[in-house]
Design goal:
GTPase HflX, metal ion binding, about 20% strand, four-stranded parallel sheet, elongated, seven-stranded mixed sheet, guanosine tetraphosphate binding, single chain, metal-binding, alpha/beta, Rossmann fold
């Protein structure tokens, strides 16, 4: 086994694929490598209809990778695929260079980005779990125990066994520390629940602009940059909207094929999304693959138990689209469901934020319409529904029917107005949403 180099920033990228290779897959992998601090020496694609169980790619492609690494001086091989411990060791043995798979690469980026105590603990735990499967003969100092001849008998415990035991001990320590942090976070979350403020979580594909929007809405100074996984640690702030206040949480960005170890390690961060009342699903409007990104985020949300939460799609970065304007695509005409309502904004330029706040306030039922409502005797069903919603403040009866003083969320009022006999409610609605 070769001695692993401590260097490793001049990288050769390998993109395995089966069938047609999508351009955005390779582009995202390149961005991940650069986000980790690597300079790109070369990029090779490798078609693998049936993965080689020992080296993933074919032997001919492996020779090509070795030649390209020698020619470019690459000291690191990055593979955009999950590698088994055996595949990783075999590739390193033949290529005589460090080999890191997709999971290891994302873990490295997370290690660089983590800022809070909790985030650092979560990253270290994920790294150790990933490393635990790669201890077997992975390094030259992990000698196997020998015995049977004088002078060749090994110690009572091999270095490999010692490392594995110490690693497991550290994993247990991290788990206990994270459990304490989770208890504190749960107590804070319960305090927010007692305040009865609606909870809104910002979710979306990495680099969609979540932290930039969070800062614009809250006046906070969360770290934001044009790079993948710019921020990992959840940040929570209270913000004012038309009709009331909400609690807004910024969360870690999602990415295709997010490693399961990371999903498990960042359970407290992702719980901000899972336990929210409403999701602002941020989308890079200038991304040509934005519909695929939406589907990938929805897939992760389903995996963490947040797939059924109501959403508002926020198409950000319209400043990068020629002729794009702030607008609100309501539910009418959208071929999906109510979650596909869309607002188009630019968080960087603070463009469209009043519209977003108004729509969000409406969706959360914070915006109300109030006034006097005259119902004829034939509107008994509508009167009953208003009482069920507990929006009737006072009521009087005369020969013409009922005279009610009501205060009703605009969202509920629009539903009632759209139904049969909803004309009295329709007359109460403003022609346009109040701006904020």
């Amino acid at each position: 086994m070769f001695d692993r180099s401590k260097r490793g920033e001049h990288a050769l990228l390998i993109q395995p694929h089966a069938g047609r290779l999508e351009d955005d897959v390779l582009e995202e992998f390149t961005d991940l490598a650069r986000s980790a601090g690597a300079s790109i020496a070369a990029t090779l694609t490798a078609r693998i209809d049936r993965p080689n169980p020992s080296i993933l790619i074919g032997s001919g492609k492996l020779d090509e990778v070795k030649a390209a690494a020698d020619a470019t001086g690459a000291d690191l091989i990055l593979v955009n695929h999950a590698l088994s411990p055996g595949q990783e060791r075999n590739l390193e043995r033949f290529l005589e260079r460090r080999v890191i798979d997709r999971t290891g690469l994302i873990l490295d980026i997370f290690a660089q980005r983590a800022r809070s105590h909790e985030g650092k603990l979560q990253v270290e735990l994920a790294q150790l779990r990933h490393m635990s499967t790669r201890l077997i003969r992975g390094w030259t100092h992990l000698e196997r125990q020998r015995g049977g001849s004088i002078g060749l008998r090994g110690p009572g415990e091999t270095q490999l066994e010692t490392d594995r035991r110490l690693l497991q001990k550290r994993v247990e320590q991290l788990q206990k520390k994270l459990e304490k942090v989770e208890v504190q976070r749960t107590q804070m979350r319960r305090a927010r629940l007692r305040s009865e403020l609606p909870r809104v979580a910002l979710v979306g594909y990495t680099n969609a602009g979540k932290s930039t929007l969070f800062n614009a809405l809250t006046g906070a100074e969360a770290y934001a940059a044009d790079q993948l996984f710019a921020t990992l640690d959840p940040t929570v702030r209270r913000i004012a909207l038309p009709g009331g206040s909400v609690v807004l949480a910024d969360t870690v960005g999602f990415v295709r094929d997010l490693p399961h170890d990371l999903v498990a390690a960042f359970r407290s961060t992702l719980s901000e999304a899972r336990e929210a009342d409403f999701l602002l699903h941020l989308v890079d409007a200038a991304d040509p693959h934005r519909e695929e990104r939406i589907a990938q985020v929805d897939e992760v949300l389903t995996a963490i138990g947040a797939g059924d939460l109501p959403q508002l799609l926020v198409f950000n970065k319209i400043d990068r689209i020629d002729g794009a304007e702030v607008r609100h695509d309501g539910q009418d005409g959208i071929p999906d469901n109510a979650r596909r309502e869309r607002v188009w904004i630019s968080a960087r330029d603070n463009v469209g934020l009043p519209l977003l706040q108004s729509v969000l306030g409406k969706r959360l039922g914070l915006q109300h319409v109030s006034g006097e409502l005259r119902l004829p005797p034939s509107a008994g069903r509508l009167r009953s529904r208003l009482h069920q919603l507990e929006v009737v403040r006072s009521e009087a009866t005369d020969e013409d029917g009922w005279l009610l003083q009501v205060e009703i969320p605009i969202a509920e009022a629009e539903k009632l107005a759209a139904g049969e006999g909803g004309e009295p409610i329709r007359a109460m609605l403003p022609e346009k949403l109040p701006e904020w």
